[in-house]
Write a structure and sequence with these properties.
With 411 residues, the chain is mostly helical. It has helices at residues 2-29, 36-42, 47-53, 57-80, 85-104, 122-140, 149-172, 181-194, 222-241, 244-250, 255-261, 265-288, 294-311, 327-354, 362-378, 380-383, 389-401.
């Protein structure tokens, strides 16, 4: 009996080691490039040994996502047990930052980017997406409960923004020493809890004009059509799910037509990033150059970009597509993303100087802005519940203009 118990324990430990190794590889190279052979090599096994635990790679990928979601749910439920919304937000941030500290110290982590869940077969992804919704609903409960549909919608928006912020944090936190983590935790709490403007709830965006919107009246050129179709499909299905066949079929063209414009799918993904970042940069520049205080300039930019994510036929590409890029391309894309974040940081610094933005850490706040814009695409269906698009945008961006702990009745 004791022998069987020891054998069961060894089986569980080895299975966990395989899942941990696969998690690290998926974060590094994406699902498609993660192979059973590479996972086996990472822990000193052969591929045949891996199949004893997971017969197919898809089974291992599902196990990685299940473990990640279970960990996130445990952290969310630990936080929910705290006495009030502020304490819950603090606990949630503290546990995730402590986890990242342990991972930096050598512990294997199970926080895996979830962007490619939708690339799995429908029967595999359905329970994972259901589990994800449970996590988001648990986080939404941090802020209270209400019978009012608008308040429930606000709490759901807060949950999405907080979830995206904590999933984006491992990417930009690499620029910081673990000795700075305690300070980062305090600054993130301050930004997320209370928002950015000196006058809580200030929101008077001005209209911006430029050529970053998708024209519905003109027939786009084929290359523009490929960019639009690929961006939408990658946002919806992840890199692996956005196959060349699906992209070509959505445009009613042949694969040959695709390869006439792009040598490989990675070239198209990089083009999508460049197109998205060019548009984001254009909006930033136009907003930055307005004749107004810097919070008004920033709100004008945020309004325009969230509107693109909610309503434009060509949204901005979600940063989660980074996961599947080769290292050399990923570094370039992250560098461009950081430059855009630094432009937001510059606007925040100038806002602190002119008194329109309260004293916050602009570098950390700029990354929260980037993750909030990224999460806005996921909230497209959420935004559809509002009869007035302006109310949808204002409600979503209240996470930045008022903070996650603001009285919902005042939004």
């Amino acid at each position: 009996m004791a022998g069987k118990s020891a054998e069961t324990k060894r089986f569980g430990e080895r299975r966990d080691a395989i899942i941990h190794a696969a998690s690290a590889l998926i974060n590094e190279v994406g699902v498609q490039a993660t192979t059973l052979s590479e996972v086996a090599r990472a822990i000193g096994l052969n591929a045949t040994s891996i199949t004893y635990y997971f017969a197919r790679k898809e089974q291992l990928v599902v196990a990685v996502y299940e473990e990640t979601l279970s960990l996130m749910e445990r952290i969310a439920r630990d936080a929910l047990a705290e006495k009030d919304p502020a304490a819950r937000l603090r606990r949630f941030l503290a546990e995730h930052i402590a986890l990242r500290h342990r991972i930096r110290s050598g512990e294997r982590g199970l926080i895996t980017a979830l962007s490619e869940i939708r690339s799995l077969d429908p029967e595999k992804q359905a329970p994972l997406l259901s589990h994800y919704r449970t996590v988001v609903e648990t986080i939404g409960s941090f802020f209270g409960d209400s019978d009012d549909a608008e308040i429930r919608a606000l709490y759901l928006a807060r949950a999405h923004v907080l979830m995206e912020a904590i999933m984006w944090w491992p990417v930009w936190s690499l620029r910081y020493s673990t000795r700075d983590f305690a300070r980062i935790e305090e600054r993130m709490f301050d930004i997320l809890a209370y928002g950015l403007p000196a006058s809580a709830g200030a929101w008077e965006p001005r209209e911006l004009s430029g050529d970053w919107r998708t024209s519905e009246e003109l027939n786009p050129g084929q290359n523009s059509a490929f960019l639009r179709a690929a961006t939408v499909m990658i946002n919806q299905r992840g890199y692996r799910g956005a196959s060349v066949n699906r992209i070509a079929k959505s445009l009613n063209v042949t694969k040959g037509s695709f390869y006439h414009h792009h040598e490989a799918k990675d070239d198209l993904v990089l083009a999508c990033f460049e197109h998205s970042y060019d548009r984001l940069s254009q909006v930033q520049i136009v907003g930055r150059d307005l004749d107004a205080d810097y919070w008004t300039r920033l709100t004008s930019v945020l309004h325009e970009l969230v509107d693109l994510q909610f309503h434009d036929a060509t949204p901005l590409l979600r940063t989660t597509a980074l996961q599947a890029l080769e290292a050399e391309h990923k570094d370039d894309v992250v560098t461009r993303s950081n430059r855009l974040a630094r432009r937001f940081a510059g606007m925040l610094i100038d806002g602190v100087a002119d008194g329109s933005v309260r004293p916050i850490d602009p570098l950390i706040a700029s990354q929260v802005i980037m993750s909030t814009l990224n999460s806005a695409y996921e909230a497209r269906r959420w935004a559809e519940r509002f009869d007035d698009p302006e109310i949808a945008i204002r409600t979503y961006v209240s996470t930045l203009s008022r903070g996650l702990l603001a009285d919902p009745e005042k939004i």
